Amino acid sequence: MLPFLFWFDFSWLGSMKGVTVSLHLGILTIAVAYYLFVKGLKFVPSSQPLPLLWRSLGVFLVGERLSGVSWIGIGLLLFGIIVLTLNTNQRGIKKAER
């Protein structure tokens, strides 16, 4: 980020609004996200860094059986991916129309 200091105007950081935005970005979006990420890593074994991929390969290639909770988790992950993909596509269409 240091090279950006030479190209962009960061004088807005000196205002109260700038400090508030910086604290919000630093504390809420980064610190809380990393905290939750680290807490989540405690529940995912190191042998399964990509649970959706490995579970899917295990089911379809090896014939592994999953519990109902695992299928619900896979469904929620796929639903989230679909929602994010559709939302991104709609934004791209709206921008192109302008």
UniProtKB/TrEMBL annotation:
<dbReference type="InterPro" id="IPR037185">
    <property type="entry name" value="EmrE-like"/>
</dbReference>
<feature type="transmembrane region" description="Helical">
    <location>
        <begin position="68"/>
        <end position="88"/>
    </location>
</feature>
<feature type="transmembrane region" description="Helical">
    <location>
        <begin position="21"/>
        <end position="38"/>
    </location>
</feature>
<keyword id="KW-1133">Transmembrane helix</keyword>
<protein>
    <submittedName>
        <fullName>DMT family transporter</fullName>
    </submittedName>
</protein>
<keyword id="KW-0812">Transmembrane</keyword>
<keyword id="KW-0472">Membrane</keyword>
